[in-house]
């Protein structure tokens, strides 16, 4: 558990440091923090809570297999979103100008597949680590991600591409 916490905190610190030292670019969506941060903090804070107040729900091979499968699925979803970004000529970095509404690959199934992947990573980590804390903190991570990131990005895209994004929103679900 200590290694999981340390790796997650390190990833969050490096991500946040890079995010907050990069100047804002006009014409891009203004986000208060990097999108993976809520899921990473859910894993780290849940891990700390697990050390202080241990929980269990499915110890042994069930948690290991199910958790590993969810983590693998999360990485596959994030990877598929990354491939769709690159093949569509769009940067996954929200600090870059968006040239088009991305509607290919996994973006045909969800408007926010990368964020779905981040949340699956938190849930899968909680299951794999047999920690109710980590898995449960994915819920507030989702709320923060939704209200602080997704709502802002959707307003940005609706302003940038009113017709194309409106049609896309009508066809594709926000999450799943």
Plain-language structure description:
There is one protein chain. This protein is mainly alpha-helical. It has a single domain, classed as Four Helix Bundle (Hemerythrin (Met), subunit A) (Up-down Bundle). The chain is 66% helix and 0% strand.
User: What is the averaged pLDDT score?
Assistant: 93
- Label the CATH architecture: Up-down Bundle
Number of strands: 0
Q: Segments where pLDDT lies below 50 for 5+ residues?
A: none
Q: Report, as a whole number of angstroms, the end-to-end distance.
A: 30 Å
How are the elements arranged and paired?
Blueprint (H helix, E strand, L loop, with lengths): L1 H20 L15 H16 L8 H27 L25 H16 L3 H5 L1 H23 L1 H10 L5
State the main characteristics.
single chain, mainly alpha, Four Helix Bundle (Hemerythrin (Met), subunit A), 7 helices
In short:
It is built from seven helices and no strands. The chain has helices at residues 2-21, 37-52, 61-87, 113-128, 132-136, 138-160, 162-171.
């Amino acid at each position: 558990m200590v290694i999981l916490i340390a790796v997650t905190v390190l990833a969050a610190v490096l991500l946040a440091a890079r995010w907050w030292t990069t100047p804002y670019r006009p014409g891009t969506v203004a986000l208060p923090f990097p999108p993976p941060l809520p899921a990473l903090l859910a894993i780290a804070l849940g891990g700390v809570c697990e050390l202080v107040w241990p929980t269990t729900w499915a110890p042994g091979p069930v948690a290991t297999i199910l958790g590993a499968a969810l983590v693998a699925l999360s990485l596959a979803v994030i990877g598929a979103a990354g491939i769709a970004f690159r093949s569509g000529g769009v940067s996954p970095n929200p600090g870059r100008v968006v040239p088009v509404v991305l509607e290919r690959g996994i973006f045909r199934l969800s408007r926010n597949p990368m964020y779905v992947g981040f949340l699956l990573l938190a849930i899968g980590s909680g299951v794999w680590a047999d920690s109710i804390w980590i898995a449960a903190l994915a819920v507030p991570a989702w709320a923060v991600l939704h209200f602080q990131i997704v709502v802002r990005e959707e307003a940005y895209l609706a302003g940038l591409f009113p017709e194309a994004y409106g049609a896309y929103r009508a066809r594709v679900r926000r999450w799943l």
